[in-house]
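From the methods appendix. Each design record in this collection lists the tokenized structure first, followed by the designed amino acid sequence. Records were kept in a plain field format so they could be parsed without special tools. The example shown here is representative of the layout used throughout.

RECORD:
FOLD TOKENS (221 positions):
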């Protein structure tokens, strides 16, 4: 049986850390993240020089300005690898929420937990960026996709946009090394949070299916 509690009690009961205050482009957004340092899939992918993960900004930030938060993300990772018995109900003024601002899913159980949270908060739009889509595919074989969950496929290679690999992918996010390369490839950089120094909250392409933008392109941080 799943218990539903307020987000404040949820953090106290489960030990999970919800990031309510971001800086930079994520200013104004809220998220639940895990550590890329603990995720074995992320560890392996960072060793691949052809992967964008070799330039992982999250790993650098967790060893830098977000070092004080790294323990929270490690704890989140450990807790989320087991089924949640308590699921949070978010405040009514929360309109959108990000899963994995600093990591990626590592197991079916973890993604199932995220689906539980999304279903418990139908008035909130949830978005998740992931390269580990086969895990989601396994989960969706035995449960439906939450209607309020936007799944964004992260292209593994830099300067190479992927086509959606599964039916449940809503958008594709690709990183380009610089504007000149993107221009040569005929790519428009449309991540406004990066190209115009706006916040994600000002652009909101990733958190909104009504804008019909399927391919989102960003310049390397």
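DESIGN:
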């Amino acid at each position: 049986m799943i218990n539903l509690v307020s987000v404040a009690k949820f953090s106290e009961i489960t030990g999970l850390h919800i990031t309510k205050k971001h800086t930079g482009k994520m200013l104004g957004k809220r998220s639940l993240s895990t550590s890329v340092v603990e995720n074995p899939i992320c560890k392996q992918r960072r060793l691949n020089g052809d992967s964008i993960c070799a330039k992982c900004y999250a790993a650098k930030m967790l060893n830098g300005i977000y070092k004080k938060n790294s323990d929270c993300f490690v704890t989140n990772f450990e807790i989320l690898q087991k089924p949640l018995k308590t699921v949070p109900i978010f405040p009514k003024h929360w309109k959108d929420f990000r899963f994995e601002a600093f990591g990626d899913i590592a197991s079916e159980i973890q993604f199932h937990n995220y689906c539980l949270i999304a279903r418990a908060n139908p008035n909130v739009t949830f978005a998740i960026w992931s390269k580990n889509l086969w895990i989601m595919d396994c989960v969706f074989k035995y449960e439906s996709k939450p209607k309020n969950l936007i799944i964004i496929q992260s292209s593994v290679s830099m300067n190479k946009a992927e086509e959606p690999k599964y039916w449940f992918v809503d958008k594709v996010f690709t990183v380009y090394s610089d504007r000149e390369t993107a221009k040569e490839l005929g790519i428009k950089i449309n991540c406004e949070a990066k190209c115009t120094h706006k916040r994600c909250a000002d652009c909101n392409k990733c958190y909104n299916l009504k804008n019909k933008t399927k391919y989102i392109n960003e310049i390397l941080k």
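APPENDIX NOTE: The mean pLDDT is 88.
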